[in-house]
Amino acid sequence: MGNVVVFGNQKGGVGKSTLSVLYAHWLADLRRQAVCVIDLDGQSNSTKSLRRYRADSSARALFDSGAIPAFPRSESSIVLMAGCRQLADVELARPEVVIPAFRRSVADLARAFDTVVIDTPPALGLRMTAALMAATAVACPIELEEYSIDGVTDMLKTVFGIKHRYNAQLRLAGIVLNRFNAHSSRQKAAMQQLVANFHELVIPARISARSAIPEALATGVPVWRSPRSAAREASLEVTKVFGLLQQRILAPEAAAGAPGESA
User: Fold this and answer.
1) What letter does residue 74 receive in the DSSP assignment?
2) Residues 83, 18, 139, CA angle at the centre, nearest 5°?
3) CATH homologous superfamily for 3-253?
4) Max Cα separation, the chain?
5) Model confidence, pTM
């Protein structure tokens, strides 16, 4: 079975989609993995960046109770189950129907791919709940602002609540510091607060706010494939963060526990 990695935060605008896409490219390009990306966010930002890898089936189909005839796997290393407007309908569906269906679908994908990456909506609903109940690991991106720290606190409560009640295999791979501004005293103070409260959960590296990342993704490539000289620093930061994150994903005993527990 492949790993099922969710990028989630109950606050929007923290870079979940960006990191989901970059992580999928990193696995495919640098780890030579076959990756399936599921875009559960109605804004479909991951879908826009990965549109050339789009499969015939959308992410909405994964919530259907009937079996999907065949999960797509092409010659490319990435396959996208695209986001769509119909995903909003899932929030009005019966949980006892759509959540088990989604978990079965993701389990089938995990048998077909080395890693399944799930980009989630920025709110706790049936889609995020289903993703966490199907996952083996969660990466929680955070932008270093006071309200973002409040959001990640809510997310951690959700993750550990689902782990204890529904999905014992779920683990928090780490909090990812994203869009960091080294010149901001406010962000530095927020980082100190975050590390003080959740030091065993924070990935010990950060991704700075750099225009090279969204510019590369807008052209459909990860930042390390960008020809711009400005992309080099961003590439080094991104690959370092993913290397540390992957260590935790592949070594459950090294993954962080709940706040207050040993790592």
Assistant:
1) -
2) 95
3) P-loop containing nucleotide triphosphate hydrolases (3.40.50.300)
4) 54
5) 0.90
